[in-house]
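Build the 3D complex.
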Amino acid sequence: MIPVAFDYQRPQTLDEAVALLATRGEDATVLAGGHSLLPVMKLRMAAPELVIDIGRLAELRHLRVEGDEIAIGAATRYRDLVTSTVLAAECALLPAVAATVGDPQVRHRGTLGGAIAHGDPAGDMPAAILALDGTVVLQGPNGRRSVPVAEFYTGLFSTVREPDELVVEIRVPRTGATGWAYEKFTRRSNDWAIVAVAVATMPSGAVNVAMVNMAGTPIRATATEAALAEGKSIVDAAALAAEGTNPPADTHGTPEYRRHLAQVLTRRALQTAIA
Amino acid sequence: MKVEINVNGTATTADVEPRTLLVHYLRDNLGLKATNIGCDTTSCGACTVLLDGESVKSCTVLAAQADGLSVTTMEGLSDDGTLSHPVTAAFRQEHGLQCGFCTPGMVMAAVSLIEENPDLTEADVRSGLEGNLCRCTGYHNIVRAVLVAAGKDPDA
Ligand SMILES: Cc1cc2nc3c(=O)[nH]c(=O)nc-3n(C[C@H](O)[C@H](O)[C@H](O)COP(=O)(O)OP(=O)(O)OC[C@H]3O[C@@H](n4cnc5c(N)ncnc54)[C@H](O)[C@@H]3O)c2cc1C
Ligand code: FES
Ligand code: FES
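Done.
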């Protein structure tokens, strides 16, 4: 399968990329790792006139501690997350989640920014960043703005990002090496999650629970979180994980099956993270 | 557009359409046919090559994305076309193939895996090859071959 013909540009700096996107935003598409975009272009479900390749911008591949937070450049690849000694000590949930994405070949190419911008409801990273109360930093012609990931997704594959904005950075708090878990339920090892649950213990002591594929966007298990805050047991709190959710139906499972999975995976994740 | 890619240690260049996939550049522009196209949907791993030393599925990489970088295909593992590379030698010794269609991708995925983790266990090999499908072998001898290539005892 061959994509529809397009023009290709690989700006050498972030400023160049932002300027190019500002003039061509409507008919241009950003290419990072290409592991969501190229399959879609090969199926001709997307046919951009211009592809702007930001995958090799060194300015977008940083990963460093900044005060209470960790700043991760959008073009940081899954493999960088998995092998990061900074993350192993400062936010060990992220490398563990990244290690479950696809297969080694996918992890060599796919980027954190691409996963966040793409907003697949079955994607692992959006829910992980949501569990961490992370922030998405966007840059457009008028400068930068930060959006809490909880406000970033508006629906299936839709975000508040404007066509002339780039995702440039993801910021997460320093949650440390412990107090987290990721339970991902798949049919085969390199599949997307049917349902997955991320648990993170925040610096405040709050326990956050986020779920993959329980809605059109990643969502928090708010009833479970409230029950934990009230001191309820893990088993009782996990039983509330699917409360108020309306998960999708597909060949992998009915909504009822997903609600059941959400409860079981939440219980397992909490038992690993905080028991 | 003009791309310049170092393939198997040799500088190559061609004028290609931006939509040219790396696997087509390798097979059609350069005539390097070891790299197979199986699924064409990033699922089977038959098209796996090394891009700057890391395994990638070349059906899902543009030649343009490899411009200025280096690529290794199975042809590049030995200078003389023999099975002298430890991974190819181990695939032969352990009968890690039947029809051979998945083999170049398996071999390149294994080279990358061993490079990243020289201390592989059987479980590491099985999960590390999760992106490569084989319809023939049932994987058992492939896993043995990768362990042998990594200097491990497959019967341990
Ligand atoms: C075989 C296979 C298995 C996979 N399995 C999983 C899995 O288990 N879990 C999972 O979560 N994902 C999985 N993925 C998807 C993978 O994680 C993608 O790499 C990721 O979702 C997108 O990242 P990318 O860098 O490849 O983005 P691209 O494909 O380059 O881009 C994706 C979209 O985001 C936009 N975009 C990218 N970067 C930016 C940016 N910085 N600013 C603005 N817009 C941007 C692009 O325009 C495009 O619309 C799988 C993919 C494959 C091929
Ligand atoms: S042909 Fe590339 S993964 Fe199957
Ligand atoms: S040997 Fe036939 S597909 Fe693997």
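Residues B 37-40, 42-47, 57, 59 surround FE2/S2 (inorganic) cluster (ligand 2) (CB under 6 Å).
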